């Protein structure tokens, strides 16, 4: 009975990390268990549950699952922040710093034009570096999910619009008189055959989870609509994890490989 009464005194609460000074700190550095007598069971980041190890690096926006007495959990809440209003404030400075540095890197002088990263590869590399080392320079990379999706969709829309405008001139003539249908067939084969091969190898030889494999294939083609379909079909975040694993490398190689082909064969 005494044990039951002790158990009933404990509560389970999810607390948001909203204090910028905690961004980049390791969970063990806070010594929450030693100071307040609580346990952290897991940490949710962008919809993905992470194991709460002492070496896990915290980020603003993480949801920490805390178990302890109500008084202890309340004290931990003050330490971590738990201010939804703070998360609703956009961190625009980090976005614009990333864009500016990406443009500089993509058009760095002194590099031959065919092997430059360009306006696509430069910001991508800088974004990866900021996500990994940005906390050392007090850069908060958190954005709300709605803002993230809005930026993503606007970027894709502008990209497709620019491609369509530049490709629209002479489109009919290319299809009718310059073998356009053959190029469409080549594109279909180049896109479909590698995906089928990798899908079969990943599923039957590497035993990759089917939902993760859907995201991996979507990421290997850098195709956000395919990711959206995968998430809707799976009903969980497994495709997003697979997508995020391969997307940065695929995007970088796609930019670099195309320019290297031009350099060597044009």
Can you put this structure into words, describing what you see?
- The chain is an alpha+beta fold.
- Helix content is 64%, strand content 9%.
- The protein has 13 helices and four strands.
- It has helices spanning 2-8, 27-30, 32-36, 70-80, 84-87, 92-106, 118-133, 145-168, 171-177, 180-205, 210-220, 224-234, 238-265; strands spanning 10-16, 39-45, 48-51, 63-69.
- The protein has a four-stranded antiparallel β-sheet with strand order 1-4-2-3.
- β2 and β3 (48-51) form a beta hairpin.
- It is elongated and about 80 Å long.
- The chain starts with a helix and ends with a helix.
- Mean pLDDT is 81; it is low at 1-7.
List the helices and strands and how they pair.
Elements: H1 2-8, E1 10-16, H2 27-30, H3 32-36, E2 39-45, E3 48-51, E4 63-69, H4 70-80, H5 84-87, H6 92-106, H7 118-133, H8 145-168, H9 171-177, H10 180-205, H11 210-220, H12 224-234, H13 238-265
Antiparallel strand pairs: 1-4, 2-3, 2-4
Helix pairs in contact: 6-7, 7-13, 10-11, 11-12, 11-13, 12-13
Provide a brief overview of the structure.
64% of the residues lie in helices and 9% in strands. The chain has helices at residues 2-8, 27-30, 32-36, 70-80, 84-87, 92-106, 118-133, 145-168, 171-177, 180-205, 210-220, 224-234, 238-265; strands at residues 10-16, 39-45, 48-51, 63-69.
